[in-house]
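Whiteboard transcription, Tuesday session. T.W. wrote the structure tokens on the left side:
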């Protein structure tokens, strides 16, 4: 029988005297003690939680104390919010406090997604004794230079600006001007006017980007916009990556999405945990990856729907993610694995065939295959005659963002999206394979290696993989970018390697580039075709390359670049993917 649930407020004093405030959901039974499930959030502890992901009331009714705490400097908690900086010590102290509560049995687990997941990793670094398990959703940390802040050297402009505006700046405004109602009203009106420019996307047309400073509040100007003027390896990327650079000697549940902005993090963190579990018994991680974005776990998108079984509310009939959390914590904290035994240790959604597959561990591809760019827009099994395909890239007329693993407030929904409008442009090259003759499943890392020249001293190249249905509809699967000046830092794998400074390219000279399109699990049916797009922008997802060697953050001067993609036996430009 479910327990009746009490909802209470609680305060926790940190070692420096700062008071953090929480909402506590707990069984209304003072004769028993229960494990504690803690989450820490900068977005408001009483903000409605997606009940399919984690419902604090139903989980508490299953015999847990669920605590949702506002991070330092956010909503009900005192102090100043400095992203990432205080989460390790505050988290560890809160874990110790939670274990001492009169209704706690001394065991603490942590849960939550995105920044909530970062707070878990950072608390675990302090190794508080009561912390026994982590449940990490769409987890940040570990890929600041590979999609979180920068991708291939380009800035994740759309997602970062949107996060700061929609998720962080408004509460900061209210706190900053709490003692000045008149000023607060004026600042709120300015914020609302700014929000209109996000809704119609006009804000993203600003050049140089630093001209936005007078329109942005203190938080945005302190913690968000300056990163557009920096690059991979900056001090904040080191802080970001430090969250999960080391495994935690704890059992972990990892939840991610193929179209999540932190997708590589989820897989990398799972792999690190799996490796260390060989030496630390009882810490074998579990993994769930659905056809989800960072904020949309429904499996339904404006142009593509994977069906109800793909949603976080059903997960192939197993139950919603909230009930899966409960089953996992039952095993990790109550030594009751009965319900968890029915769920595969690794559960992955394979798009295209639109089914879930269970595994004992994350599988490796059984083989690799490459498809080579060819003449007349072909995509072939072998390189053909050496040739080139050219286009012009004008930074003042960039290719718009249409789908993808992003999180942009307003008019740019993430996820799979049809590409007809993109592919109709003169500045987008398209290479298409022959129809596949039998079922083909791409699995794991997808990369593009290609040879290109430009008339500019710096420029960008965007590569996108699509599925072309038998009716000709092209739908995006995965994509990536490389900034020419950062080519050496992303050579060979498309992932960032420190130690090499950015450098200009010589106009007209051919260079080899590598782009990581991240991981996927996608099955092509007989008759369908693979398609590769190559272009030089995806705006406003990534900041525009002005083709001048200067950042869009600091300059509005642009030049049109003449781009040439080489292919054939002399220049074996190709897409490579794992095959399962």
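and on the right, the sequence the group agreed on:
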């Amino acid at each position: 029988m479910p327990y009746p649930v009490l909802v209470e407020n609680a305060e926790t004093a940190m070692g420096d005297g700062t008071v953090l405030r929480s909402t506590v959901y707990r069984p209304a039974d003072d004769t028993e003690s229960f494990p504690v499930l803690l989450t820490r959030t900068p977005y408001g502890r009483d903000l409605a939680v997606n009940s399919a992901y984690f419902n604090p009331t139903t989980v508490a009714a299953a015999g847990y104390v669920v605590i949702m705490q506002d991070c330092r400097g956010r909503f009900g908690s005192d102090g100043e919010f400095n992203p990432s900086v205080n989460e390790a010590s505050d988290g560890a102290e809160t874990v110790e406090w939670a274990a001492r509560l009169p209704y706690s049995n001394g065991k603490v687990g942590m849960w939550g997604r995105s920044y909530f997941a970062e707070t878990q990793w950072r608390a675990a670094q302090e190794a508080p004794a009561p912390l026994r398990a982590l449940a990490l959703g769409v987890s940040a940390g570990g890929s600041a230079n590979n999609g979180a802040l920068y991708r291939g050297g380009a800035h994740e402009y759309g997602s970062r600006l949107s996060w700061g505006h929609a998720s962080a700046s408004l509460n900061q405004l209210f706190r900053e001007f709490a003692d000045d109602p008149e000023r607060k009203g004026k600042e709120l009106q300015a914020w609302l006017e700014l929000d209109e420019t996000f809704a119609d996307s006009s804000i993203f047309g600003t050049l140089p980007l630093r001209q936005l400073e007078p329109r942005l509040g203190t938080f945005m100007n302190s913690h968000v916009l300056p990163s557009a003027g920096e690059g991979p390896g900056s001090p904040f990327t080191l802080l970001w990556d430090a969250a999960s650079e080391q495994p935690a000697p704890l059992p972990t549940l990892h939840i991610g999405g193929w179209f999540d902005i932190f997708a590589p993090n989820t897989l990398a963190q799972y792999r690190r945990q799996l490796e260390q579990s060989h030496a630390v018994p009882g810490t074998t991680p579990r993994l769930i990856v659905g056809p989800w974005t960072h904020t949309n776990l429904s499996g339904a998108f404006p142009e593509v729907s994977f069906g109800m079984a793909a949603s976080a509310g059903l997960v192939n009939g197993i139950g919603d993610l909230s009930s899966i959390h409960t089953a996992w914590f039952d095993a990790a904290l109550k030594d009751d694995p009965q319900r968890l035994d029915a769920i595969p240790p690794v559960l992955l959604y394979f798009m295209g065939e639109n089914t879930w597959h269970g595994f004992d561990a994350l599988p490796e591809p059984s083989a690799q295959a490459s498809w080579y760019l060819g003449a007349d827009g072909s995509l072939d099994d072998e390189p053909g005659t050496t040739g080139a395909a050219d286009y012009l890239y004008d930074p003042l007329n960039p290719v718009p963002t249409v789908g993808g693993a992003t999180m942009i407030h307003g008019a740019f929904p993430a996820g799979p999206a049809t590409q007809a409008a993109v592919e109709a442009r003169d500045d987008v090259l398209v290479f298409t394979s022959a129809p596949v003759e039998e079922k083909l499943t791409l699995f794991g890392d997808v990369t593009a290696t290609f040879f290109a020249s430009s008339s500019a001293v710096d420029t960008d190249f965007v590569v996108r993989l699509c599925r072309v249905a038998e009716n000709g509809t092209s739908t995006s699967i995965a994509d990536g970018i490389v900034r020419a000046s950062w080519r050496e830092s992303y050579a060979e794998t498309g992932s960032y390697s420190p130690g090499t400074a950015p450098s200009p390219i010589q106009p007209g000279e051919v260079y080899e580039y590598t782009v990581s399109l991240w991981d996927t699990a996608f099955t092509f049916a007989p008759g369908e075709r693979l398609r590769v797009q190559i272009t030089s922008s995806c705006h406003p997802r990534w900041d525009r390359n002005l083709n001048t060697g200067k950042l869009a953050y600091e300059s509005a001067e642009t030049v049109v670049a003449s781009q040439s993609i080489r292919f054939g036996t002399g220049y074996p430009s190709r897409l490579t993917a794992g095959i399962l």
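Someone added at the bottom: The two ends are 44 Å apart (CA to CA).
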